[in-house]
Amino acid sequence: MSTFLYLIRRVLQALAVILIVTVATFCLLHALPGGPARGILGPQATVQQIAQFNHEQSLDRPLPVQYVAYLGRLLHGDLGTSYTLNEPVSQLIQERLPKTLVLTLLSAVVGLLLAIPLGMWQAVRRNKPVDYVITTLSFVAYSTPVYFLGLMLVLVFSHVLPWFPAQAPQGDTLAQVFADPAGLVLPVVAGAASVVAVFSRYMRGATLENLSEDYVRTARAGGSRRGAILRRHVFRNSLTPVVAMLGYYVPVLFGGALVVEQLFNYPGMGLLFWTAAQSSDYPVLLGCVLVISVATVVGTLAADVVQRFIDPRVKEGHA
Amino acid sequence: MTATDTTAAATAGTEPVLRLEDLGVTFSSETGDVPAVRGVSLHVRPGETLALVGESGSGKSTVALASIGLLPDNARASGRALLGSTDLVTDVVTASERDLAALRGRAVSMVFQEPATALDPLTRIGAQIAEVVRNHRQIPAKEAGVLAVDLLRRVGIPDPERRARAFPFELSGGQRQRVVIAMAIANDPELLIADEPTTALDVTVQAEILDLLRRLAVESGTGVLLVTHNMGVVADFADRVAVMLQGRIVETGPVEDVLLRPEHEYTRRLLAAVPRLAVAGSPAVPGASDAAARPGAGSGEEAGQASGQASGQESGEGSGAVAAEVPRPRYGTRARSANPARDSGTDGERVVDLRDVSVVYGRRTGAVRALDGVSLHVRPGETVGLVGESGSGKSTAARVALGLIRPTAGTVTLFGSDLRRTRARARRSLRAGIGVVLQDPVASLDARMTVQECVAEPLRVHRRGMSAKDRQEHVAELLERVRLPRAYAQRAPRELSGGQRQRVSLARALALAPRLLVADEPTSALDVSVQEAVLEVISELQEELGFACLFVSHDLAVVQHFAERVVVMRAGRIEEQGGTMDTLLHPGTDYTRRLLAAVPVPDPVRQRQRRTARQAAAAGTGPAAGTAAGTGATA
């Protein structure tokens, strides 16, 4: 199949997935008890006031009708207006998303740059002390809640050792964020920890599997040195399954950002989502979920495309 | 080293390129040390081929790996493995990994069994060959790339400039093996180790690869250590043979001596278990050799049969004396010759009947015809052999017969019922009348079940009313039937050998007293002696229980001895079918003739003649001549 047709098919699939996600989120949000009116109008609000708010926001109409109306606005790029912040959701997301992207991408890149060599090193030194130490640290890093890990980082590297600020860079623009790189260190480390833990495990497994492959023996029989075999053959072959996993890891990264942003008071999308969830701000919540699902779908698509690039067999349908 | 060693070939006198002296290899495992090779001494001279033969577990591959220093980490070698002929001799046993890397690919190189996995799937083949070149020569990448193309040309890859940029998955198995060979000869090694180099390939491809290896060895005077279990390959390729049993060499000598006049009792048994392909027009050297290999072989059966007409049709094969050796029934006592009454009857009862069956995967331009207008049937009590090369559709046809694949067109009648017209429930009960034995003895039994549970499973499904006690008794009887002790019921499959596992599969297949047994390559993964035992059990039970058998195999010799009728398949179509003797002794199509000609027979003298005839035929008829011709066939 040509790459073009493949992409078209994948994009159509992606749209279907996103549609299903919006339906699910829409239903779930409206199934929750309470509702936005009480949160926004306060405990003093009368039943009439609440009814009027619900009517203004069309919240008293049947769910399917509401959903179709929402979808119709969505097609015009209208994500609605936040109940609490009185700003269009699209504008809120436009402001916040880049900052979250910076945080998650940095976490992912830093995490992978550590995880891939660590995993390969572990595989080569399998069942040696290095392997055990890294394995143990991985499990610790993976099983520690991000929230706790972040607090520990602040405690050690901000309070005990005053190396980095405890607060992430403030401000609305990316320029302001990059003006304070030291402030990004602890949030990025907190976000990267689980990436290192998870992907060093993947890389270790994939490398071990490849080291026992016949082609490694062939290369050795041809006089290639161990290091060269690792560099030229094992590395690329081990990377393919890891890349495939990366796409599915996007929502986990966003989930991590939710906590990290809250913890370091970083005004990104995670923080936006967090506050919106507390006041049942439906349009904001829906907008955020939409963005995350798009990011996930794009992430898996990108991973698949990269895989087609690395592994020629994928393209031909041989693998 | 034995006395016979010194008589080897014309190369005697030159220093050996490999000398193993009292080589031992021990594997350390959790349960203690396991000696795999003990006291092995042998040598390989330049230009000669030493075949190391033996059954699985005999240690032959371990010797090969020890000779190139590629033993796994949990293995320890002792003794000496001296590599190199004149100026520089290295002891592989004691050499450092660094020194070994400098030797591998230059002084010694290796060709492996499985071409499908031997190459890095993500690197272009030209680059993989160039890598071996550059491991030992300080030349620019571009120059190495040019050399790689030359090497591809030398190993007979068509259009090498373009193919150098191909990835391994774009090549066929045979071509991949050629690439592995190109890597192996890239730096003109003194010693080439070939570990079952053709075992994973079809016979016609096997013949081409052996021709190629022989030509390359002759051209450059490379010594070859050939590891194989296939006596036909040995007869075709080797100058000398070393027979291994349980980690030791039990017999060494020139190929004619070992294969035709074996001295050791084990060698004799091994050779006797090899199913031999009988062919019309084989020049009259046989008889003696066979009798020697298989003492006690019947005398009257060797009746010569005039088959002048048959050989008249054959252009290339044996122009000399024509004497067809009639193969005797090897498995069981039943006469395997085609029963004319059965053969002529067009109607009558048929256990399974495929009529004009096609199986198509995919649609339109991407459609693949796995089967194309296939009609075949099996009558009660009869064995039909389904033969063909990989991808010919023989397994697909068997699966259609089982009702596992719905044909795109055509009808399948099982025990008189049209499978398309039966409901799912009825189809299930029809299937209870079929037993299945598959190729892989490891994968076809659930590792988490005991033998008892494995064999009892069909009873649980189709005989719900049966009490646990009856079931247990029935399983015990089945195990006895396939000649396994009753006590094995409580064992796990992993505690059994490959042959025992196949018998468990057979017991399971027979649990419901089937009317049809479908056996898909049931002995391909087994050693010859084990294969013989398993086929004998099937044969005897067939006589006793009277089931019909659809026997899928790529091994023409086995089919010849086992089946009454044979169906030859090629690319999803039936090439020809008929009585086994008729079809395989006097094939009606070029394809079958080529298939038969490519099978190496375990007799070096006859094999040499067959090879010459095959190569002459190929040179005369096809474009394949380029790879086959000029291979030093007169060696």
TrEMBL record, chain A:
Main location group: membrane
Listed name of the protein: Peptide/nickel transport system permease protein
Domain of life: Bacteria
Species: Actinacidiphila rubida
Stored InterPro entries: BPD_transp_1_N, MetI-like, MetI-like_sf
CDD domains, alphabetized: TM_PBP2
GO BP, sorted A to Z: transmembrane transport
Compartments reported by the entry: Cell membrane
Its membrane topology: Multi-pass membrane protein
Domain named ABC transmembrane type-1: residues: 97-307
Record-annotated membrane-spanning stretches: 12-32, 101-120, 132-157, 177-199, 239-264, 284-306
Family assignment from sequence similarity: Belongs to the binding-protein-dependent transport system permease family.
Keyword set, alphabetical order: Cell membrane, Membrane, Transmembrane, Transmembrane helix, Transport
UniProt entry tagged with the keyword Cell membrane: yes
GO CC annotations on file: plasma membrane
From TrEMBL, chain B:
SMART domains: AAA
Chief site of localization: membrane
Gene3D superfamilies referenced in this protein's UniProt entry, alphabetically: P-loop containing nucleotide triphosphate hydrolases
Highest taxon in the source lineage: Bacteria
Membrane topology value: Peripheral membrane protein
Ranges where the record places region Disordered: 282-350, 603-635
Record InterPro entries: AAA+_ATPase, ABC_Ni/Peptide_Import, ABC_transporter-like_ATP-bd, ABC_transporter-like_CS, Oligopep_ABC_C, P-loop_NTPase
Any Gene Ontology biological process: peptide transport
Keywords from the named record: ATP-binding, Cell membrane, Membrane, Nucleotide-binding, Transport
Ranges of Low complexity composition bias in the record: 300-326, 614-635
Compartments, as annotated in UniProt: Cell membrane
Family label: Belongs to the ABC transporter superfamily.
Protein name (Swiss-Prot/TrEMBL): Peptide/nickel transport system ATP-binding protein
